[in-house]
From TrEMBL:
One of its GO terms (molecular function) is GTP binding. GO terms for biological process: mitochondrial large ribosomal subunit assembly; regulation of mitochondrial translation; regulation of respiratory system process. It comes from Coturnix japonica. GO terms for cellular component: mitochondrial inner membrane; mitochondrial ribosome. The lineage of its organism: Eukaryota, Metazoa, Chordata, Craniata, Vertebrata. Pfam families: GTP1_OBG, MMR_HSR1. CDD domains: Obg. This is Mitochondrial ribosome associated GTPase 2. Keywords: GTP-binding, Nucleotide-binding, Ribosome biogenesis. Belongs to the TRAFAC class OBG-HflX-like GTPase superfamily. OBG GTPase family. InterPro entries: G_OBG (IPR031167), GTP-bd (IPR006073), GTP-bd_Obg/CgtA (IPR014100), GTP1_OBG_dom (IPR006169), GTP1_OBG_dom_sf (IPR036726), OBG_GTPase (IPR045086), P-loop_NTPase (IPR027417). Gene3D superfamilies: GTP1/OBG domain, P-loop containing nucleotide triphosphate hydrolases. Residues 50-204 form the Obg domain. Residues 205-370 form the OBG-type G domain.
Length: 386
């Protein structure tokens, strides 16, 4: 044994090389090719849009209740043991649960069925209840049935029972009475509730960036927060709402949503229209983004307010600020005083591209947020927190 250990020791010394090894072998060309570091693929905005779903039609059916059982106690030397058929278990519910981790309705399937309750058994055994099926939906999901809103899941963890499971049947033990000492009656379980629901997602952000295509909304969100929506010099670059967070020193966070561009007639579903007007509806205050380099920029503002008002009365009168973007361009500096003359709202002129005067917007955003929190608290409601 000693000899063997010595031999191994010597052998170990022989193979020992005190040089740092490369991370992987490059001696074999084929191996080194296969071990190339994998890079995460960048998904384009167009591809992402396939995964973002803000509408779903779902059929939900509660679990069937388990049937009751019919049986009589049987024991040696006991002539009449009496009925001992147990009740069936209740069917499981289908429950919609708001989850902050879920960002779109793409993971929601078209059909959900609750688990069935188990049958009752002899010896007074009750059947087990069917388990509930939880469907995770994003925060801000609106549940509609026949066009009527039945639930609004605005808080993380909020639940809504979409379909109740059926009640379990009764075993013959249940029907025992003084008049009937040996009942043979037992009942089947009830079927679960069946409903067809329409789920609709509304982005719940504090501030919404509202503007015509190419106004610079996505560029502004990029400058304000760490969100990375696509930016390009063609209209309708943004196809889905993006939410970015602006963080303040007092640990308050303001969520800003970049909403796809609106055009004239959006309320009649022109452009990307109607689908995205509903995201604006949820925002507590609005940031109108106007391209100052275009002549008569106040017309953009009039169009935007008109579209919002047509979609929902009072939407254009929400607390707001007008952002005059692209102030770095020469035409913008000419148009800015003209815009200020034409409108009564506060105008913040800035450049999302160069970051000029961005601080004024960040400070004003906090003022709008603080006012919103105070108003909500005075009304006894809890403000939306991110
Ligand atoms: N010069 C200048 N160009 C800007 C500024 N902000 C945005 N742009 C440019 O304007 C073009 C449109 O910007 P986006 O941020 O994609 O505009 P958008 O409003 O999000 O457009 P949609 O998503 O199509 O609605 C891009 O080419 C930007 O580089 C700015 O402050 N100054
Ligand atoms: Mg955009």
């Amino acid at each position: 044994m000693e000899l063997l250990r010595c031999a191994l020791g010597i052998r170990g010394l022989l193979v020992w090389r005190p040089v740092s090894r490369p991370a992987f072998s490059t001696s074999c060309a084929a191996c080194s090719k296969n071990r190339r570091l994998r890079q995460k693929r960048v998904i384009s905005e167009k591809k992402l849009s396939r995964y973002f779903v803000d509408h779903r039609r779902v059929r939900v059916v509660g679990g069937q209740g388990g049937g009751g059982s019919q049986s009589f106690h049987s024991e040696p030397r006991k002539i009449f043991g009496g009925p001992d058929g147990g009740n069936g278990g209740d069917g499981g519910h289908v429950i919609l649960k708001a989850d902050q981790q879920v960002k779109s309705l793409s993971s929601v399937l078209p059909f959900y069925q609750g688990f069935h309750g188990e049958r009752g058994g002899s010896k007074n055994c009750y059947g087990a209840n069917g388990a509930c099926v939880y469907v995770k939906v994003p925060v801000g999901t609106l549940v509609k049935e026949d066009g009527v809103v039945v639930a609004d899941l605005t808080q993380h963890g909020e639940e809504y029972v979409a379909a109740y499971g059926g009640a379990g049947g009764k075993g013959n033990r249940f029907f025992l009475s003084n008049e009937k000492r040996a009942p043979t009656l037992f009942t089947p379980g009830e079927p679960g509730q069946e409903r067809i629901l329409h789920l609709e997602l509304k982005t719940t952000a504090h501030a919404g960036l509202v503007g015509l295509p190419n106004a610079g909304k996505s560029s502004l969100l990029r400058a304000l927060s760490n969100a990375k929506p696509a930016v390009a010099a063609y209209p309708f670059t943004t196809l889905n709402p993006h939410v970015g967070i602006v963080r303040y020193e007092d640990y308050e966070q303001v969520a800003v949503a970049d909403i796809p561009g609106l055009i004239r007639g959006a309320h009649q579903n022109r452009g990307l229209g109607l689908a995205f007007l509903r995201h604006i509806e949820r925002c507590c205050f609005l940031l109108y983004v106007v391209d100052l380099s275009v002549s008569q920029p106040w017309i953009q503002l009039q169009d935007l307010k008109y579209e919002l008002e047509q979609y929902k009365k009072g939407l254009s009168t929400r607390p707001c600020v007008v952002i005059g973007n692209k102030i770095d361009l020469a035409e913008s500096r000419i148009n800015l005083p003209l815009l200020k003359e034409q409108i009564s709202d506060r105008v913040i002129a800035l450049s999302a591209l160069t970051g000029d005067n961005l601080e004024e917007l960040i400070l004003h955003l906090k003022e709008l947020y603080d006012t919103y929190v105070k108003v909500e608290q005075s009304q006894g409601q809890s403000p939306v927190k991110w």
